[in-house]
Amino acid sequence: MVELGSCLLMLLxxxxxxxxxxxxxxxxxxxxxxxxxxxxxxxxxxxxxxxAVAGAAxxxxxxxALYLLRAVxxxxxxxxxxxxxxxxIAFALSTMMYxxxxxxxxxxxxLIWRRETGVRLRRITGSVLGAAALRxxxxxxxxxxxxxxxxxxxxxxxxxxxAIYYM
Length: 167
Known about the structure:
InterPro entries: Prepilin_IV_endopep_pep, Prepilin_peptidase/N-MTase. The chain is mostly helical. The protein has helices at about 1-20, 25-70, 75-85, 90-115, 115-135, 140-145, 155-165. The protein has one domain (about 1-165). The longest helix is centred in the N-terminal third of the chain and has 43 residues, at about 25-70. About 30% of the residues are buried.
């Protein structure tokens, strides 16, 4: 229960700061990672430490791939390492899956609300076709600069709640 409460506290702090500034500060993420690792090491010994390290590595690794695609920011990557350090691999991956699904729904709602769906789809299609024709990722990188942005924590918090519910 301590693990879940601590993870939720970290998520709530990240939620508030991400909504205000579109950034998640290192003081939240790094503290979350180290406190999760320390807690599991102290309570469960080396087995707990490996549990936390494996969770942090899985959360960090998969979110880092999304970071390279410019889908999320660096704070989100470190936040998922913290989620993994506190709750382990399965919870981190479940939260990630539900968060990505929620982000897709939020993005779609924003596009429909702004009436930009057709424009965005044409832009994506053009960049993918350009990348295929030029055999370069440059058209996709250029198109990524104009992509829709919103605080990812709007999707992560519901994603974590769904992961807890289905746990």
